[in-house]
User: What shape does this take?
Amino acid sequence: LAIEPGHIEIRERLMFTLLMSGAFEEGAKLAEELKDDKAFERVTTVVRATDAIRRKDYASADAILKYNGPNDLDRLMNSLLSAWAQVGAGKGAEAVSQIEKLKGPDWYALFRNYHGGALAIVAGDPVKARKFLSAAVTDREGAGTAPDTFMRAVMALARLEAASGNKQKALDSISAGETVTPNYAPLKALRASIEKDEPQIQQVTDPT
Assistant: This one.
């Protein structure tokens, strides 16, 4: 960059290298500089919005995410990030409503239901959180394609039910997860904790 500051291709390659190596702040600075490059807009949009959310600048994140992207994956990612930006700005009901209205192919379902549940938890709406997460936990097709997201939904629902005094429902959620991923250590630990009636704290508490 110091040698060829105007060389777009080098700057783009450096941005990807920085992001892949974990140097997010430096990569985000380059993404901001390259935001007008249409060839990489789908990448720079996500990076810039994520950086804004990380800095708790939720209004900027939401403005950046007006770009929908050229395909279903981009639209899903940007919609989810936009909803998290809204809940971070204190607009919990609007964020949950946005996810409820999210339309897309069948494979959206697990991601929509997990994030909808997590957003509702942060927004303080356990009724909608339970509805979203229960749908996610029964999505066996989604579990096969995105097992990590499925397990997060299982554990979030289990903690929600346990915290609400519904011990058996919490254990039922864990059982659903065990049929998909047997011997998953974090799930086994959560089962043991719930069986001991230990207090449960949600892992998702804010957008960052």
